[in-house]
């Protein structure tokens, strides 16, 4: 688990449940907050649900699961790009519909 943490973008704080595996990981210089409930992990769970909803390759079925790490990274990168653009639009125009597909475009 420590190797995975070293490879990711470093955060200033980490929240997890009380699983013993999280207690042995070194989070320095960030702070680790073990939580007895899901009070600080709901947004992460929501983001994971969004990814599984929009990217079929992340649904837990063997036929849709991407076995190519490069393809998976590119799909997530495209999703994050469109999702962020949609969120900015929704902040600016909260009363207008904002479908994720409307924020995808390909260079010509």
- What structural category characterises the helix and strand content? mainly alpha
Q: How large is the count of helical segments?
A: 4
Unreliable spans = none
Number of domains: 2
The biggest sheet amounts to: 2 strands, parallel
Percent of residues in helices = 40-55%
Question: What share of the residues does DSSP label as strand, in percent?
Answer: 5-15%
Shape: globular
Secondary-structure element string? HEHEHH
Measure the end-to-end span: 42 Å
Whole-number radius of gyration?
A: 17 Å
Order of strands side by side in the largest beta sheet? 1-2
Overall pLDDT: 80
Would you count the extended β strands for me?
2
Describe the structure.
The chain has helices spanning 2-7, 20-23, 42-54, 69-92; strands at 13-16, 31-34. With 108 residues, the protein is mainly alpha-helical. It has two domains: 2-34, no CATH class; 42-103, no CATH class. The protein has a two-stranded parallel sheet. Helix 2 (20-23) links the parallel strand 1 and strand 2 (31-34). It is globular, with a radius of gyration of 17 Å. The relative contact order is 0.09.
Q: Any key phrases for this structure?
A:
44% helix; globular; 7% strand; mainly alpha; two-stranded parallel sheet; 108 residues; 4 helices
Short description:
The protein is mainly alpha-helical. The protein contains 4 helices and 2 strands.
